[in-house]
Amino acid sequence: MRKIICFSHGNLARGMTETVKMIAGNFDNIDYYCAYVREDEDIEKEIDRIILENQENELFIVSDIFGGSVNNEWIKRINKGEKIHLIAGMNLAFVIELLVLINDSKMKGAEVVQKAMTSARENFVYCNQLQMDLEEDDF
């Protein structure tokens, strides 16, 4: 199975996953982990547990920010298996596209990630500039 795990500092991952399910549907192969919300938490052990529980799965880990502690802990583990894809910079357009692609595509993992990233980039729009450009075109 191909599985997405949104992984963040605080509750961002939960909110992201719930929003994706609200928009795209209740897929079984997307989950989340909210780091640093419990005092007794050991992120390294939690990541190792997730890897152990998903040995048969191809994992797409979507972390909140590149260089953050969550992302850095996963970076230490991505070379331990070709079935782990780590993507930093979680956003809604990317996670929805990734979810659709891993469920509907026979593309390899790296291809899926690249296609979802390309699609997500197209959703970055500075609306003020867009509005100014449209107003200039009206004249």
Automatic annotation (TrEMBL):
Keyword Nucleotide-binding: no
Keyword line: Transferase
GO MF, one annotated term: transferase activity
A biological-process GO annotation: phosphoenolpyruvate-dependent sugar phosphotransferase system
An example Gene Ontology CC term for this record: membrane
Any Pfam family hit: EIIA-man
SUPFAM superfamilies associated with the record: PTS system fructose IIA component-like
PROSITE patterns named among the record's database cross-references: PTS_EIIA_TYPE_4
InterPro entries: Bacterial_PTS_sugar_comp, PTS_EIIA_man-typ, PTS_EIIA_man-typ_sf
Start and end residues of each PTS EIIA type-4 domain: 1-124
Protein name listed in UniProt: PTS fructose IIA subunit
Source organism per UniProt: Vagococcus vulneris
Classification of source organism: Bacteria, Bacillati, Bacillota, Bacilli, Lactobacillales
